[in-house]
Amino acid sequence: MNILVVGSGGREHALCWKIAASPLCTALYCAPGNAGIAQEAECLPVKAGDIDGLVAKAQQKAIDLVVIGPEEPLCAGLVDRMEAAGIAAFGPNADAAILEGSKGFMKDLCAKYDIPTAAYRRFTDTAEAKAFIAEKDMPIVVKADGLAAGKGVIVAQSADEAEAAVTTILQDRAFGSAGAEIIVEEFLEGEEASILALVDGEHFVMLPSVQDHKAVGEGDTGPNTGGMGAYSPAPIVTDALTDRIRKEIMARTVAAMAAEGRPFKGVLYAGLMIGPDGPKVLEFNIRFGDPECQPLMMRLMSDLLPALIAARDGELKAFDLRWYAESAMTVVLATKGYPGDYERDTEICGLDTLPDDPNTVVFHAGTSRDGDRILTTGGRSLGVTTLAPTITEAQKKAYAVIDAIDWPEGFCRRDIGWRVATR
After folding, report:
1. pLDDT in tens, 39-73
2. What are phi and psi of 135, to 5 degrees?
């Protein structure tokens, strides 16, 4: 099969790495890809948001399946366009992609179908939102309705902070059109975890639990990012909790989307808060997370490609996946200044001298190649991913690799997996 992966991040590198190992894959392409992906696939100079260009390139390369990584092209209808051109595509169509494209839609869906989530209100008027906040206890959460690259969520510790967030998003439009509407919701106490599932419109296969680290600073401090690291499994997600998540969240959501005339196919990602009342949905994403995808692909024993095909074809009812019992961890290396302003085109050295270890992979995100040099093109640049018998051992291996990489302009959180360590 000829496969095209769309995207250029660490998630797409992990997907390409796994798909390239499939005996079903005869030719692998990625658009636009990055310096690391170029080792697994032929990179095509087409941006992930160029819908027309991607369809034309898929036709030119006789692509049998398109695997779409980022949320933006999914929400923009790339699956619809590919399928209309006779090209099979993995991911939700635009109607189903609204589950991530609009947090307001997601919250209303949860309320309508009894999917546990935080209490909330939707606002398009600044004064009304501030009046609502004035009557509520703190902390409180303010969210941009649309896509904001994982950065449109502000946890306000005081009413002043919450009102400033309302002004920033709704009035100043810090996130552009994504902030045309906001959601103000109660702050949930507990520990976060993520559950992903492959969905075929009716049936689903859950993947192992993952825990992400969103905040830029150690101890989960500072602004949110796209993710500074992740590990799998997340010990807080016990077998009993997994069963509740399957029944109360994943099954209800898949059925709800079908009932709304928006049957969901692709990856359903539930970001959860595990509190005293059990799991509640913080957000739904419509694709593999980044960096959550990296440790999951590291743990996946089965061939990924048949699973993606089965999800697209509605054949997951009797499908199963096998996983390594070991734990996996990804630690993200980013350019200093991220998630704010940062320098580009800095050189990363030492990658070619790292020890050859089948249980360690350095996934590339924001990188490009200039001759023999690896240069940075984005904030998050690398995801050092390791497999080991325990989270603690995977953590030790990951940081040993990081310490061998020569990149003065880079930084990472040194506490990925801290919750496991403190247990």
Report:
1. 999 999 999 999 999 999 999 999 999 999 999 99
2. -95, 0
